[in-house]
């Protein structure tokens, strides 16, 4: 193969790779997902986010219910979150719980306890 024939093939492969990377980022809302570990005693059917104090809730961020004892990675749309947020959970046993003033951008995994309280580790990323 000549150098002239290899260059278009290389460029085509590079474009395919870049396109797939962009698609993956879009699938993740431009940010890392939030891992939900459900130990609540009920299924989690809804997760909504609101900037603290605004009471304007996002659409349901859970695409499929998280069964009791299950784990799910949830696209929370980190690029659209400005900072401290409230999280509302809906459970299939009728409970609705709001966690106030959560540092969502610094949380990557949260366990929902049997009292529907959050347990998480706050991780501050370098800027």
Task: Give an overview in words.
The protein is of the alpha+beta class and 127 residues long. It has two domains: 30 residues; 87 residues, Immunoglobulin-like (Sandwich). 20% of the residues lie in helices and 30% in strands. The protein has one helix and seven strands. Strands 3-1-6-7 form a four-stranded mixed sheet, with no helix packed on it. The protein has a three-stranded antiparallel sheet with strand order 2-4-5, with no helix packed on it. A hairpin with a 5-residue loop joins β6 and β7. The longest helix has 25 residues. About 16% of the residues have low confidence.
Secondary structure blueprint with pairings:
Layout: H1 3-27, E1 34-38, E2 44-51, E3 71-74, E4 85-91, E5 96-102, E6 109-112, E7 118-120
Parallel strand pairs: 1-6
Antiparallel strand pairs: 1-3, 2-4, 4-5, 6-7
How many independent structural domains? 2
By CATH, the architecture of the largest domain is named Sandwich
CATH-defined topology of the largest domain:
Immunoglobulin-like
Largest sheet: 4 strands, mixed
DSSP, total strands:
7
pLDDT under 50 segments (min length 5)?
10-29
Strand order of the largest sheet: 3-1-6-7
* CATH classification, class level of the largest domain: Mainly Beta
The value of Rg in angstroms is 19 Å
Q: Give the amount of beta strand, in percent.
A: 25-35%
Q: How far is the first residue's CA from the last residue's CA?
A: 46 Å
Search tags:
single chain; 127 residues; alpha+beta; Immunoglobulin-like; 2 domains; four-stranded mixed beta sheet; three-stranded antiparallel beta sheet; 1 helix; 20% helix; 30% strand; globular
């Amino acid at each position: 193969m000549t150098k002239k024939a290899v260059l278009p093939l290389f460029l085509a492969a590079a474009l395919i790779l870049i396109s797939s990377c962009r698609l993956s980022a879009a699938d993740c809302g431009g940010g890392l997902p939030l891992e939900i570990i459900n130990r609540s005693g009920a299924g989690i059917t809804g997760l909504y986010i609101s900037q603290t104090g605004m009471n304007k809730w996002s659409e349901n961020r859970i695409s499929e219910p998280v069964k009791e004892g299950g784990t799910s990675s949830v696209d929370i749309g980190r690029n659209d979150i400005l900072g401290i947020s409230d999280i509302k959970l809906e459970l299939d046993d009728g409970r609705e719980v709001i966690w106030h003033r959560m540092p969502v951008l610094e949380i990557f995994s949260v366990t929902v306890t049997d009292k529907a309280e959050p347990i998480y580790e706050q991780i501050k990323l370098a800027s």
